[in-house]
Predict the structure.
Amino acid sequence: MTDAKQFMEEITCPSCARTGHATWQGEAGSKRTLIDIGGGFDQRADDANPGFQMIVCTECGTTQPLQASPALTPH
Ligand SMILES: [Zn+2]
């Protein structure tokens, strides 16, 4: 059985301001898994943090860490 929830989060490239979206499964702000990413972004392993993933802007190649967004933390 599973009660995992899915939710989307907007992604903005810090360099070229391109926007895309990521679809997560799990709980916002805590344990969650990236299950889909789109809108011109891709994901790849973070070499500096084994086991973690990074978001890569396919437009300019800028990377940003995948991390819980405070804005999505349930209150
Ligand atoms: Zn970019």
Q: What stands out?
A: The chain has a mean pLDDT of 82. Residues 13, 15-16, 18, 57, 59-60, 62 surround zinc ion (CB under 6 Å). The first strand starts at residue 6 and ends at 12.
